[in-house]
Amino acid sequence: MPSVLVVEDDPSIRQSLIEVLTEHGYAVRSAADGFGALREVTQTPVDAVVLDLGLPDLDGGDALRMIRGISSVPVLVATARDDESEIIKILNAGADDYLVKPFSGGQLVARLSAVLRRTSHVPPAGAGAAGAPVAAAAEPLRATVVGELAVDPGARTAYLAGRELRLTRREFDLLAFLAHHSGQVVSKRRLLTEVWREPYVDDQTVDVHLSSLRRKLGERAAAPRYLLTVRGVGIKLVAPR
């Protein structure tokens, strides 16, 4: 049974999240503030954290960075902040995904399940029932060099002109997939299906990560070098000319 730490200062919202996750087979612990969350993470490891940003003692972004300093536990941020620059900041601080409030219990469970599939060997709650078909393992991605960009999925490292890029988990997964298919136009829907494994999520999720990834590659959408947008079709990673 996967364990989840819910960090939420509002008692009614916290209780609702606990109930939803418990009903879906998660073992749930909770904290009402940032320092409480840090104590929970250090004292008893969990498989995932659902983190509110509006905490009474610490800004959620600061709490996230402190969690990242002591643990690689997957973190799903729950926030009322829907500004793109704020979302990029959250992802750069180490969040594995985000949900903008208000959201349904079903969306929370689906996002959390997807985060666990991508970031750990812990199966989502309710997975692996006896007799259930097991999906074949995906083909391992090979190290790829595109121009001055080198991406090694095995070591989970990416270098640009000899300088290691500091990428979040999701940014690395996105870059590795595009590098593996370099020169090919990949649709956002395919990225959501094969990188996010969430084909029902809107394209803004990809746009936010691409914007952050472009910045770390030293380019802009208006002046691309590696990430070229093919309008109405998708994105492709190419060597700069």
Task: Write a brief structural summary.
The protein is α/β, with parallel strands linked by helices and 241 residues long. The chain has helices at residues 11-23, 34-43, 60-70, 84-92, 105-119, 169-180, 188-196, 204-216, and strands at residues 3-7, 27-31, 48-52, 75-79, 97-100, 144-146, 149-152, 157-160, 163-164, 227-230, 234-237.
What does this structure look like?
With 241 residues, this protein is an alpha/beta fold. The protein has two domains: 3-119, Rossmann fold; 144-237, Winged helix-like DNA-binding domain superfamily/Winged helix DNA-binding domain (Arc Repressor Mutant, subunit A). It is built from eight helices and eleven strands. It has helices at 11-23, 34-43, 60-70, 84-92, 105-119, 169-180, 188-196, 204-216; strands at residues 3-7, 27-31, 48-52, 75-79, 97-100, 144-146, 149-152, 157-160, 163-164, 227-230, 234-237. The chain has a five-stranded parallel β-sheet with strand order 2-1-3-4-5, sandwiched between helices. It has a four-stranded antiparallel β-sheet with strand order 6-7-8-9, covered by helices on one side. Mean pLDDT is 84; it is low at 128-140.
Poorly predicted runs: 128-140
Overall geometry comes to elongated
What is the number of helices?
8
| Helix/strand/pairing category | alpha/beta
Report the order of strands and helices.
EHEHEHEHEHEEEEHHHEE
CATH topology of the largest domain: Rossmann fold
Keyword list:
241 residues; alpha/beta; Arc Repressor Mutant, subunit A; 2 domains; four-stranded antiparallel β-sheet
